[in-house]
Amino acid sequence: MGFLKLEKITKRFSGSVAVDHLDLEVEEGEFLVLLGPSGCGKTTTLRIIAGLEVQTEGKITLEGKDISDAPPERRDMAMVFQNLALYPHMTVFNNIAFYLQNIRTSKETIEEKVQHAAQTVGIQELLLRYPDQLSGGQRQRVAVARALVRSPKVFLLDEPLSSLDAKLRAGMRSELKLLHKNLSQSKERKGTFIYVTHDQVEALTLGTRVAVMNKGSIVQLSTPRDLYNKPRNLFASTFVGSPSMNLIEGSLERTNGSAAFCFQGHCIGLGDVGAGVLSRANCAQMPVVLGIRPESVKIAGSGAAGALGAQVITVEPLGQNNLINLQVGDRMLIALVSPDLAIHEGEEVGVYFQPEATHLFDPQTEENLLG
Q1: What's the CA gap between 224 and 239, in Å, rounded?
Q2: Which residue has the higher pLDDT, 183 or 327?
Q3: pLDDT tens, 125-152?
Q4: Which of 42, 300, 301, 350 has its CA 20 to 30 A from that of 150?
Q5: pLDDT band (50, 70, 90) for residue 188
Q6: Spans of all domains in the chain
Q7: Mean pLDDT of the region 6-34
């Protein structure tokens, strides 16, 4: 049984469905990320877990206890919002202590808990300052410390880094990851995090598991590694990865006991990988969408055996890589290659894919045919 369990959670707003029969189990001590585009239902799901939104249908249990109708203050959860919501007239100390003061905690306990939380996030020297005297990163740490003093069973974080600049985001990602590691090893209560973001970098670097959401449903729930290397459907394949996965519509065809992917008169061998798909489908030819990550697109000399003919349209230096835009027939492909590879705009080159790096999707169901 999961530590936190959502069963068939549905939320409707004026006829539109924000969350659609969502099932999810969260294990104690894990860092689960809800990842998806705006409007996919991830924040609504988080607010339902917190008790700030009431589900239209479905059940929520925490440690086996039904909390579906419990008010937020009875769920033993702490939430860090996107807008931080610090009290401007209070010092950092009093912002952190606010919850403890409201439940009439002793002054000694408040002092101990606030100091410990401040030390955990590295803001001991800021306790007497006011929010308008803090940087964005410092305010974010105060918001996290305010959640820490509650010692909740679950931490809920709604895009907490979205208002920070790139450098601060990178620093706070590392701090949150370390904070979770330390809390998850606690002998008293493990730190269970549920984190909402549209940023794939945050999801892949922070999450022990990532739930990709689209149109109110979870389309894939897996480790960051499997999400990137084994996308289960077209949506997950293109939403995760930058630049996005290349997708080409064509057909998978049996050729001399093997298989090739063909489109617009071009064919590229896929060996046993493609042959296995045809065997399982019990056919000699079938429509597919081929997916290949830009870093798996290999470039060779023009006319290389087994390679597709392509023209280099643009070369974009990115520092450690060059991004190459290629035209094959009327299709555009993106490749990420070493800057040491001499490639020039307008040049004719050969392009090939390693079969084990390809993905094949059903154009109707959009599911990955390779499992």
Answers
A1: 13
A2: 327
A3: 999 999 999 988 888 889 889 988 988 9
A4: 42
A5: low
A6: 4-239, 246-361
A7: 96
Beta bridge partners of 259: 254
Place of tokens 């022990």: 208
Residue-wise over 343-359: b if at least 16 C-beta within 10 A, else e? beeeeebbbbbebeebb
Give the burial class of 333: count Cβ atoms within 10 A of its Cβ; 0-12 exposed, 13-18 middle, 19 or more buried: buried
Say what the pLDDT of residue 61 is.
98
Name the residue with tokens 């429509």. 287
Do 246-361 and 4-239 have the same topology in CATH?
no
Residue 1 pLDDT exceeds 70: no
List the structure tokens of 371: 């499992």
Q: Which H or E run contains 196?
A: strand 192-197
Model pTM score: 0.91
Neighbouring CB atoms inside 10 A of 367's CB total: 12
Residue pointed to by tokens 């202590």 = 97
Can you tell me the distance from the alpha carbon of 238 to that of 85, in angstroms, rounded to the nearest whole number? 34
Superfamily of segment(s) 4-239: P-loop containing nucleotide triphosphate hydrolases (3.40.50.300)
Q: Which of 242, 213, 211, 216 is nearest to 227 (CA)?
A: 211
For tokens 């203050």, name the residue. 73
CB of 294 closer than 8 Å to CB of 280:
no
Region 246-361: CATH code: 2.40.50.140
Q: What percent of the chain has pLDDT over 90?
A: 73
Confidence band (pLDDT; 50, 70, 90) for 84? low
Cβ(265)–Cβ(256) under 8 Å?
A: no
From CA 203, how far away is CA 180, in angstroms rounded?
Answer: 14
| Residue 185: strand, helix, or coil | coil
Q: Say how far apart CA 133 and CA 52 lie, in whole Å.
A: 30
